[in-house]
Amino acid sequence: MHRAYHSLTSALSTLRAAIAVASAAEAHRRPAAADLRRLGIDETKFAAIHL
Amino acid sequence: MSAFEFLMQGLGTAADPMMLLYALIGVTLGTAVGVLPGIGPALTVALLLPVTYRLDPAGSLIMFAGIYYGGMYGGSTTSILLNTPGESASIITALEGNKMARKGRGGPALATAAIGSFIAGLIATLLLAFLAPWIVKVALVFGPREYFALMVLAFVTVSAAFGDSALRGLTSLFLGLALACIGIDQLTGQARLSFGVPELLDGIEVTTMAVAMFALGEALFIAGQRLQVEDEVTAVKGSIWMSRRDWARSWKPWLRGTFIGFPIGAMPAGGAEIGTFLSYATEKKLTKHPEEFGNGAIEGVAGPEAANNASAAGTLVPLLTLGLPTSATAAIMLAGFQQFGLQPGPLLFATNPTLVWGLIASLLIANAMLLVLNLPLIGLWVKLLTVPKPWLYAGILLFATLGTIGANPSAFELGMLLGFGVLGYVMRLFGYPIAPIVVGLILGPMAEQQLRRALSISQGDWTTLVQSPIAAVLLGIAALALIVPLILRARGKGEVLSQLAGEED
């Protein structure tokens, strides 16, 4: 039960991070470092992309 | 008839030489706008709306869908070769794709993106074809209150659930809903919010609004950013073909990307980008080569590129079956349907099956065209980047103005185009999302009509809205879609704050 809850919250957090990064990128803004980390994206490498 | 038979019939319609030509124009334009940074499919479809006003409805819609698919294909080219995503759904492709190109593996990166896009587009279009009749069957039992609940759900998800501020999203939505009230009331014949201006009695033209918000507003915003990007195209060295090892490492990400992107695209306001980021996170978790991520891992290109194409097909599921736009491009396509007097939804499948199935089948053909167009003509697409940016923005403004004047020749319409264009620019500048205002304008009158119909049937009893189980469930989901993201956002802020505190310690 605890494991299922943990998986669900982890999946929701990843989804939230993906939504946050997507909306920031679409508005040509730099996404939050914590959201990028959650998605396994290196912050400095992401910053090198010409948004 | 079964979905398969309808699809075969649709293929017959889509194979008509004129339809093939429309599809070819659509995918070519789509690839071009995908390649050009700053111009996306939403802007292009918006620009073409007034121009296609007098063309064949089926052909125009096939062209719009081709642009949407083409945009998803073309975006990867500049991501990989230039580290500049052609459109937002290809941002994550740049992360691994450009590293691959710098290592001399640009060919396999472009190939895995194109083949992955093709496979995802194929599977997702088939999923769309076989899922749509089921959803239509369910939607056919919908009455006014169910439709109203569905639209409330669409309003909430488009404005509040996604994006970083529910307040900004809702502000944009209510602006759209207010604009939708302008004109003559369909039920009573009273003029509303027209302020004695005769031109406002017909209401705000959705086409003008879409062109102003997405074409003018976006062009002004991009031009105003003065981005100084060093356009250094990484040359494609060596073979463009994938090795056996590349194939072995790509096929699973293609499939996973498809099954992540498709439902995300069908989710209201999901947007293709979200699927690409989730696909990247999944591939990074599952990879056997974690050391390559960030340095040119082929899985990081294959998965997200499949996800963004699957997402485009996913977007068409709610659009065609329920008349619900879940992305900016879908909202403009809905305006496209409406300009031909067509209302997407379950009834369209019954009243105009040739058009709907022709459109779905044409996606399969467009997908094959894109594979042929993209890989061999890569040099030609890259050359597009040499077009000076000021020419591009001036061209968009000119084309948008001429198109609107052509469809509605009046100085008032031109004034509205420019006014809304500036509004679109200001909204972008202050971080207000654009899709909710357009969705509010398009769906607002429909939601109002269904609400008033439901209340007429119940003789003014508001509780009727929650007495139908389907409507109650839909309104419940809408409430959750409003509340859960607020909690998640608060939790996210909490996480960031605690991390910051940890770093300070």
How would you state the average pLDDT of chain A, rounded? 82
Please, what is the oligomeric state?
heterodimer
Which strand order does the major sheet of chain B show? Answer: 1-2
- Gap between N and C termini of chain A: 42 Å
* Most extensive interface: A-B, 32 and 41 residues
How do the helices and strands line up, and which of them pair or pack?
The complex is a heterodimer of chains A (51) and B (505).
Chain A: H1 2-26, H2 33-38, H3 43-47
Chain B: H1 3-14, H2 17-35, H3 41-51, H4 57-82, H5 91-102, H6 106-139, H7 144-161, H8 166-181, E1 183-184, E2 191-192, H9 206-225, H10 244-266, H11 271-286, H12 299-322, H13 328-339, H14 346-351, H15 353-374, H16 378-383, H17 389-407, H18 411-429, H19 435-457, H20 464-467, H21 469-504
Structural commentary:
The complex is a heterodimer of chains A (51) and B (505). Chain A has 51 residues and is mainly alpha-helical. Chain A has one domain. With 505 residues, chain B is mostly helical. In chain B, strand 1 and strand 2 form a beta hairpin. The C terminus of chain B is likely disordered. Classes of the chains: A mainly alpha (51), B mainly alpha (505). Chains A and B meet through helix 1 and helix 2 of A and helix 5, helix 11 and helix 21 of B. Chain B: Pfam families: TctA (PF01970).
